[in-house]
Structure formats: structure tokens, C-alpha cells
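Whiteboard transcription, Tuesday session. T.W. wrote the C-alpha cells on the left side:
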């Protein structure tokens, strides 16, 4: 899989229906140096785990995209997503 950003990577991973987002960093999470950070954990039905991470402005975009994706998934199947 080739991607140019964490948002692209998340989109590619979530393209198939066999994966769910299980954890997302809290909104506005920042490292001790003040840099924004976001991690999204994805689990596939065959047991594989994936972690997509982003820093800075891309972290904010990743958080927003992951929340949209979980909102859509919850609407479809009532998935329970926990914070990292």
C-alpha cells in the first residue's frame, strides 16, 4: 500500500468492509512539546491490527476523517469506538 498521507492510508485501509476503527486519540491531543498528535487503531476481522499516526495539522485532519468514518459505521452497525 502506497499513500501520501495518513488520511490516504486510513482511506485505503477502510476501503474494504472487513476492518473497523476501534480506537481514536482524544480530540485536541498534543504531545509534551505542543505538537498535535492523532493515532487511529484499526482491526480487521481476521485479527490483523493497524495503527495510523499523524502529527501537526495532519493529526487534526486524521481525527476528523476517522470520526466521520466511525459515525458512518455506527449508523450501519452500531460499532463501539473507544479512545486511545
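and on the right, the sequence the group agreed on:
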Amino acid at each position: 500500500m502506497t499513500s501520501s498521507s495518513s488520511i490516504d492510508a486510513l482511506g485505503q485501509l477502510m476501503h474494504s468492509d472487513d476492518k473497523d476503527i476501534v480506537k481514536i486519540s482524544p480530540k485536541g491531543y498534543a504531545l509534551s512539546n505542543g505538537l498535535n498528535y492523532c493515532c487511529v487503531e484499526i482491526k480487521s476481522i481476521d485479527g490483523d491490527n493497524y495503527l495510523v499516526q499523524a502529527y501537526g495539522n495532519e493529526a487534526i485532519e486524521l481525527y476528523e476523517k476517522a470520526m466521520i468514518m466511525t459515525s458512518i459505521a455506527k449508523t450501519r452497525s452500531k460499532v463501539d469506538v473507544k479512545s486511545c
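Someone added at the bottom: The chain has two helices and four strands.
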